């Protein structure tokens, strides 16, 4: 049995985007982009994992794989919903216009045809890849609406008057979301598009995710070549306040964005409602190289999403806190799954967790992974939050991932790490409390 604790990571080889996150029949189902043949990106399948508590995860093998013309070069990202007891998946199927003759798993020129497909299951485990797929939105041909290659990643939710679907796309090299409506999950009517008329917000918006969170509505997009705070362009997840109107079929987007995470390793988030009916989020942690065990790609710990006085917070899910509630006095006493740290910092104070440094400097929480990150890594070594009024931190630490939650998720910094050791040091004037991860 292939299992993961606290953080779900690849069973082997390569994974990227989480897909089809859904609390269904008293279990959390999480699918993911999976290339089962090598530790590199290739023809996408959907892997599948389940959990009863968001802590203990069990891999269930491959759920989706290419079988028809519309998805012959990959089952790209998508979502899951429940309808009349069935689990219904939506995803983007791609067909390369010019496959690379030396490697059929990649396109020669990046051009492809993208269609939106659906498939359903009566139990959430058995999917008929040979006869159960249906194309519900054909490849877009009007460039004023979206792009034939770069329109993907359906997000579906149920409103008061019908079902709604968002697609990420691009028009005139500016990110867009496309909105569709349906009464039956099969026949979809295009309603509108939404975006911001400014190239600084990225040329393509992948993996759109609309969240009705406590305190407000939020749109998360994985924006390609986004320019946060006039810095160098990067692919990051931006969070926008929005208002969705069912009556008009439109979404109004405010330009007052914030980043999902200030470590820059998180991408392609997925949300669902947890057992308490509150929105919970996971995201892909981008890793530069495979682990010694030969896998690459993992997901963040689940986070609750809420809006506090106009600010979106992402706090560690209480199930994770409960699982990490057995006190220890030193990280070396923790189980292999990792441990949780709680402490309060003052200006100039710092703590070093196995080579990963967290400090309070100039009114911000700053992190440094220089000693535990490969030189060929593409992510930043030094990260920092915006200016803060207080500095309470909670840290989830495991061998390849450090997640820093500041002020109960007001801001977060998430970083992949390599070579982390089980020790700590610091110049704290206060106390530091460790909590082990329970293994059951």
TrEMBL record:
Q: What is this protein called?
A: beta-fructofuranosidase
**EC?**
3.2.1.26
The alphabetized UniProt keywords are: Glycosidase, Hydrolase
State the superkingdom. Bacteria
Which residues are in the Glycosyl hydrolase family 32 C-terminal domain?
367-435
**Which InterPro entries does the record cross-reference, listed alphabetically?**
ConA-like_dom_sf, GH32_Enzymes, Glyco_hydro_32, Glyco_hydro_32_C, Glyco_hydro_32_N, Glyco_hydro_beta-prop_sf
Q: Looking at the keywords, is Chloroplast present?
A: no
What's the family? Belongs to the glycosyl hydrolase 32 family.
Where the record annotates domain Glycosyl hydrolase family 32 N-terminal, the positions are: 7-311
Any GO molecular function: beta-fructofuranosidase activity
Record GO biological process: carbohydrate metabolic process
The answer to whether the entry has keyword Hydrolase is yes
């Amino acid at each position: 049995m292939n299992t993961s604790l606290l953080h779900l990571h690849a069973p082997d080889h390569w994974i990227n985007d989480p897909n089809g996150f859904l609390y269904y029949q008293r279990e959390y189902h999480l699918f993911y982009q999976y290339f089962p043949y090598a530790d590199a990106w290739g023809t996408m399948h959907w892997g599948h994992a389940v959990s009863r508590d968001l802590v203990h995860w069990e891999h269930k093998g491959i759920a989706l794989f290419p079988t028809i013309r519309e998805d012959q070069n990959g089952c790209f990202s998508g979502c899951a919903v429940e309808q009349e007891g069935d689990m219904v998946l939506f995803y983007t199927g791609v067909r390369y216009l010019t496959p690379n003759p030396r490697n059929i798993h990649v396109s020669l020129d990046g051009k492809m045809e993208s269609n939106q497909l659906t498939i359903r299951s009566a139990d959430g485990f058995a999917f008929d890849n040979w006869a159960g797929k249906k194309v519900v939105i054909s490849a877009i041909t009007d460039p004023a609406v979206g792009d034939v290659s770069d329109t993907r990643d359906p997000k579906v939710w149920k409103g008061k008057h019908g079902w709604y679907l968002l697609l990420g796309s691009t028009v005139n090299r500016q990110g867009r979301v496309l909105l569709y409506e349906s009464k039956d999950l099969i026949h979809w009517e295009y309603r509108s598009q939404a975006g911001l008329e400014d190239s600084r917000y990225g040329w393509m918006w992948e993996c759109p995710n609309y969240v009705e969170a406590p305190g407000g509505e939020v749109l998360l997009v994985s924006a390609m070549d986004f320019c946060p705070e006039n810095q160098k362009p990067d692919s990051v997840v931006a969070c926008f306040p929005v208002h969705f109107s069912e009556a008009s079929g439109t979404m109004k987007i405010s330009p007052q964005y914030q980043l999902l995470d200030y470590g820059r390793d998180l991408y392609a988030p997925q949300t669902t409602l947890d057992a308490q009916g509150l929105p919970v989020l996971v995201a892909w942690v981008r890793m530069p190289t495979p682990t010694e065990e030969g896998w690459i790609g993992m997901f963040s710990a689940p986070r609750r999403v809420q809006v506090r006085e106009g600010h979106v917070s992402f706090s560690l899910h209480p199930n994770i806190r409960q699982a990490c509630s057995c006190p220890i006095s030193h990280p070396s006493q923790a189980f292999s799954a990792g441990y949780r740290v709680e402490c309060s910092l003052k200006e100039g104070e710092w703590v070093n967790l196995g080579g990963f440094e967290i400090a309070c400097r100039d009114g911000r929480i700053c992190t440094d992974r220089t000693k535990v990150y490969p030189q060929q890594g593409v992510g930043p070594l030094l990260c920092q939050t915006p200016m803060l009024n207080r500095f309470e931190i909670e840290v989830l630490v495991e061998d390849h991932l450090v997640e820093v939650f500041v002020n109960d998720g007001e801001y977060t910094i998430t970083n992949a790490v390599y070579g982390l050791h089980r020790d700590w040091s610091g110049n704290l004037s206060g106390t530091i409390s460790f909590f082990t991860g329970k293994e059951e």
